[in-house]
Amino acid sequence: MTLLTRASPQTLRLLALGLALLATILFFATQIEGYLSPRMFNRISSSTAVVLPVAVGQAIVIMTRNIDLSAGSMLGVVAYMAGQILSANPDLHPILAVLFCMALGAGLGAINGLIIAFGRVPSIIVTLGTLALFRSFLVEWSDAKTITTAILPQWLVDLPSANAVSIGGLDIRVTVVLALAAVLVTGLALTFYRPARRFYAVGSNPDAAVMAGINAPRVVLTAFILSGAFAGLSGFLFLAKFGNITVVAGLGYELKSIAAVVVGGVSIMGGSGSMIGVLMGALLVDTIDNSLTRWAVVSEFWRDALLGGLIMAAVTVDTLASRQLARLRKGGTQ
């Protein structure tokens, strides 16, 4: 009991998340033949790599006590427009392609941020509207045409199967390294870069943050710009992974990103969370998603329902655990 009362809520969340991930893997290993194989590892890791950057951006927004429901639509717009640019300019350098995607996403995120931060409109209302607006823009812009692998440069088509490094016989793809880099850089910034700590301050207590001299609207605007930029990075990875891009690209990724963030221990009330938790949350969500696809017992139509259930369960457990820890610590001080 002493260890429980001394452990931080974040540590306990990460421990519980690690146990849940291990239990999930062991369960499906008994249900799916050949589950513990390099092929399944590559399938899950490559899928997680697509949702991970957008989850990182979503986490930053939620830390400020907001939410971004338009992340999936931004991902789709970026993936489609990047496909058009690269099909017309196949010699474009990969780094420039990534920067273009992130810049385009940041521009879309800035639209959300300006309205929310300076117009003082609730984020759930604004991003619900831009979710539809960005998707409608994509429908009109595409003119019902599909981006296919046949018109994309060969380096992009080959990117999903390109290995960065092999560890213990497992191949780590380049796309996975890009996603992990987003997590690492953001995690280090939130830990050691003082201006980045303002996301926590604004989400924890907006009034106190303003009294401390923090420009809260600017911090919120920055959070949404970063959310858009990371959605843009996910858009690039989505384009590389699937190649064939239609107007429904990225549909549902707002739910997956929120699930990964909340399951990963980022409080929906803002002010707390870590990138390690987001990484583990994204890995758990995608492990379940991909495993259910292979497991014929459960219909694929129940996958979204399961994500919704995970979100509700995570929020409920987080609330109850925080209350219980508060009681235990209060009792320990008496």
UniProtKB/TrEMBL annotation:
Kindly give the membrane topology term recorded for this protein.
Multi-pass membrane protein
Q: What is this protein called?
A: Autoinducer 2 import system permease protein LsrC
Q: Which residues form the signal peptide?
A: none
Keywords, A to Z? Cell inner membrane, Cell membrane, Membrane, Transmembrane, Transmembrane helix, Transport
Annotated InterPro entries: ABC_transp_permease (IPR001851)
Membrane-spanning parts: 12-32, 44-62, 69-89, 95-118, 176-196, 216-239, 260-285, 305-321
Q: Where in the cell is it found?
A: Cell membrane
Q: Which residues form a coiled coil?
A: none
Q: Which organism is it from?
A: Rhodobacter calidifons
Q: What does this protein do?
A: Part of the ABC transporter complex LsrABCD involved in autoinducer 2 (AI-2) import. Probably responsible for the translocation of the substrate across the membrane.
Quick check: keyword Cell membrane in the entry? yes
What quaternary structure, including any partners, is listed in this protein's UniProt entry?
The complex is composed of two ATP-binding proteins (LsrA), two transmembrane proteins (LsrC and LsrD) and a solute-binding protein (LsrB).
Keyword Protein biosynthesis included in the entry's annotation: no
